Amino acid sequence: MKKSNLSSKNKNFDLASFMNGNGRIYLMLIVSAFGIFLTAAGFDTINELKYNYELYPAKEFGYSFSNWFTLEYTFIALAAALLGATSFQFLTVKQWGVTMLSFPLKRSKLFNKSVILPVCGLALIVVAVKSYMISCNIKIFGVNSDLIIQGVTDIFVCLKYVLLGFTAFCVSSIACGKKLEVAFGGISLIGIMPVVYKVVDTLLDMYLYGYDSILYSITKSYSDFVFIFNPARELSLTMVFAEMPSYTTDKLVVSAIWIVVLILVLAFTKQYFIKSYKPEKIEMKSTNKPMLAIIGAFIGLTIAEIVLDIIITGSAYNDFEVTSSLYLALLCVLTVIFAFLTICLIETSFKLNKNKLIAVLSPLSIIALILVFSFTGGLGYEKRMPDTKDIKSIEISTTFYGSDMFNTMTSVDLYMGYPEQSFTFTTENDFEVVKEIQKTTIENRDMDTAESISITYELKDGRTITRNYNVLSNEATEKLLALWKTDSTKKAIEDYLLNNKPTNTYPSETDSYYFDGNEAFTWDYYEEPHSVFNFSENKVYIASKQNTGTNVTDKLTEAEFTRIKEAIYKDYCELTTDEWFKPTKTYGAVAFTYNDKYYAGIYGDYYEEDEVLYESDTAEIVIENEAPPIYESTTGEYKFWGGLAGAYEQVTIPVTAEMKNTVSVLKELNLYQYLTDNKEKIDRVFIADAKEYFDWKCNVYTENEMYFRMYEMSAYFLPDSDLGNDIMFFGKSKYTINEVLQEQYPDSDFIYEDYDSLGVFDYTTAPVEEIKNTKEMYTLLTKAHIAYYDEELKGKILFVDYAAGIDTAYYIPA
Amino acid sequence: MIKINSVTKKYDDFTAVENINIEIQDTSVFALTGFNGSGKTTLLNICAGVVKATSGEVLLDGNDAFDNDKERKNLFYISDNMFFPPTSTIKSGAKFYAKYYDNFSYDIFNAILGIFGLDEKLTIKSLSKGMKKQVQLAIGFAAKPKYLLIDETFDGLDPHKKELLKKLILEYINETNASIIIASHNLQEVSDICDHVAILNGKNVILNCAIEDVSEKFRKVLVTFKNEVTENDLAHINYHRMKLSGKSAMIIVCGNVENEIEKLEKMGVKSLESERLTLEEVFIEETEAASENEKIKSIFKK
Description:
A: four-stranded antiparallel sheet, B: alpha/beta, Rossmann fold, Alpha-Beta Plaits
């Protein structure tokens, strides 16, 4: 008899034994922790960590340009899926399953034992990594409710992925018999869950709120496999949830709901495992019919789409015309083939049987179902509209009014702060027009427009029907313009102008930090609309076209101030659409500010020239008023995004020749002189001061660049605009400017043009001492722009995004 | 006591066992036998709580065995192919099981390993089928269960190890008053150590009695009648199988065999010899394997 080392007191660590027990799970958790840390932080931050610790956390929460958050979520779901598969691996090996089930453990305990360690372990890792990052952010940005909400939201999103990956493989392991089937089943469940979610979400949208196109939503989120208008478009698969990268409480709630749903799925699976699970199915062929249907549908459709994508992409080079019917036929055939082959692979048999039939019929039924919905417009629901006689009122809310019309008139506030305007109509004539708009919208869908419209019918019986359309055709917008001059619209404008309060407050103490790491932090501060007419307690400037702003606040009594506001309002109500968009002459502007900040906005510099101190020895320009950019004496830097603050604390109303009431009142109040005191004729041109090219690094963007700045995190959700880059002046005129400057200073290399990491045109190395006369520079630059406009922009609307959010639109007379 | 109460198990359309009723007393070694696919393993799986019976129940000391962790702490199931984690050694394999059984005794485990001559450092993967079975048995006994279920008990064991195992089983019974269910085709070994036997025949139990009663249930009778007899003449005899040839007959009588023999003698016989059947012969008779003899003979004659 050989001597044994085993004894009843043997407690020595045994690696093999450890790995045979929970060791595998622990090991996977450690790897996951490392992976989550890396993906959450972003690989590029590792190097930065060496040099500047504080740079590191600013990259988190998906704020960096790299799309790290997607990688992170994918990794978490993958880690959780592997943990799920590992935890229930015993159910895929007959002898292992029999052994585990013969142990003196209740099935419920066995289930819990398999779930709790991996799920809780991974959840703890997620919470720990994220908490660390939140703490790093707090260290830099200070305690801030937005930051906490964002951090907590991110934790919830990550936990959702933990549960998603784990639950999918848990369900698959318990439902399926063979390892390969479990793998296919788990992958299919992960893939199918977002689709199911999207379908449910879309159906709810359609039936509760009337969003226009179920097909559009489904295909956008998953694939374009039945996107009959252009099947070759956007065939990419979305295997993960489409995450809206903005951090809102909605997202927190949605994630929380997902977590609850997935926990319920786990609870249901547990009950199934306890009461109905049959170990005799282990290692048997395709044991679960619903899983077969899911596998067939997902794997079949997915592979078919990939193959079709390759075929269609290839067809671009060989004139192979892809029609909708051909696409659908190919899709069906390929789906059947791949679904069949998948089950053959699982069953290791080509014999046709019931299982293969289920797997094949499942995706075909889905295709059929979606086609029925698409061709019947959600079974006819989308076209439903109430009878005019039943309507009490209709409310229209549309981005069309918000972005174009208002923006043209009132600059940044209405555009940035209040993207949608609501108008309520109460006359039968208006009802008919609105119904026409809805009908036209349905009939003329243009997938390329970003404008949306929401129509809410309030019926006489108290019910409301809301219909939302996320596209607007030209035909529909024409009809919207027809509604523009109705009494209802005027009332809405009045409400808007008089009743909204400027609730925004700018974070003063930590503002430089806010903008230092990522401007997206501040976005929520500007969502509340504020009205032109609520700038009452502060200052009024009259801005001439000559780029000067005159403070007239002290010259006005409260009654006179009110007269100006009322006159502007009256003009707003009386002007025709053409007069709004195409005034014959613009005299200047009336600018209202609060917090004692005035930057002449529309017609001039951001700040008044006489308040700028110029220190040539240090090559610094210090602005003494509160205007941005904010000069940080400690670091010697100008805070790039400081301009945003001022932009939201003033609003500028252009005064045109057509605004007879305003002009009249201004004349009566002896304020008109400020508008007409022009020494130089520069007609309707918005130009930055030369200083800004150096101090602010010339933050003049093309439109898309501006959007990118504004929605930095959501590059994927850039709203399309009907204002193309071809009418953006700066991208094309920069060379002209450069030429002018080089001509003026031929021996200097101070104009160094480049694009920074944001793609923003950037002058970075100007020797400030060369600029002796900013006025001269200004004139030169202005001429350069005018020259450019003369050639290119006549008769067009010029949309200018100026210096970090100060934007406006101009009509350049033909 | 293990009580198998009207247990039926169906796999879709296939019935593995049907309405099985068996009682296994304490301090008992119960043999469960039957041809391949007769439902032995299914019945053991049900007793071990691995598989749920379609109907009926298995009671361990009066409590349902299925999903009953309390009762199953006293039960250890040595299945035909017990699981060991990949790369595990005998030692780590034992630890894997020991975690689930409070009474697990490494001393007993070590001692049995010693008897079988196994080194704990060997990996399970490197063991032969018989050696694996020895490890499984060692773990099973070390768990000190009140109910020990052993599937394919003697499979892969050499004669020496079989003898050792029989001694271990008997010694374990003596010491612990345990109930052991042995599923095996090895009827000789079974008859050596078991006190009770049940034979499964596809679905049903066709024999369930004490080993010593087996020989009383069947008797092989070689009889020569004075006159020729037909099957009708023997209709009143309770027999299991009969082969008639003129005045001679070979009859396997069953039931109250003494009574049946007396009936035959009353029919007028020249000579009559009766002999007891072994368990193996009973198994063959009961599973109707005997009727296949002629078919087998005819295969090669063709």
